[in-house]
Specification:
The protein has 153 residues and is an alpha+beta fold. Helix content is 24%, strand content 33%. The strands form three sheets. A four-stranded antiparallel beta sheet has the order 1-10-4-5, with no helix packed on it. A four-stranded antiparallel beta sheet has the order 2-3-9-6, with no helix packed on it. Strands 7-8 form a two-stranded antiparallel sheet.
Length: 153
């Protein structure tokens, strides 16, 4: 008669825990958005809000795989006149970014009089959205916005 050893039991338990964790992560990644997209019009005329044209949300690939692509009117190129912030679901986040010299980025083509801007969100923030069941919200372009504010003269 063969006896189950501690090693066999521990191995089976480890596989079981790994399968449960994989299931939980898959469930969190596939959760739908928790809020509908809403059109917010800033009350302040000195504030201009531009919604993302496309978002890429793949934090499992590491740094620089969570970002939004924005089509921005040329008038906002003046860094001296405007301050820019990234919001996701209305919450302001520090974001790195780059202005593309290209007319096309990730399948988004710039319209005449516009330029393309890519803004990144930190991977840890994307994981926070996932753990809190908000990953579906992060994947919706309407929840991402660049907010341009006129700087005081």
């Amino acid at each position: 008669m063969k006896h189950w050893g501690v090693d066999n039991t521990l191995g089976i338990a480890s596989v079981g825990v790994a399968m449960v964790l994989a299931g939980v992560v898959a469930w969190l990644l596939n959760r739908p958005a928790t809020v509908d997209c809403r059109t917010e019009v800033p009350a302040d005329h000195a504030v201009h809000r531009i919604v993302a044209r496309k978002v890429v949300v793949q934090p499992w690939l590491g740094e620089h795989h969570v970002y939004g692509v924005f089509m921005v009117p040329n008038r906002y190129k003046d860094d001296e006149k405007y301050a820019v912030a990234l919001t996701v679901r209305g919450i302001e986040h520090f974001a790195q970014g780059e202005t593309s010299g290209s007319r096309r980025v990730d399948g988004v083509s710039a319209e005449p009089g516009h330029y393309l801007l890519r803004r990144y969100v930190r991977t840890r923030l994307a994981l926070w959205f996932m753990v809190n069941g908000l990953f579906g919200d992060l994947r919706r372009p309407c929840n991402w916005a660049l907010v341009f504010s006129e700087r005081a003269s």
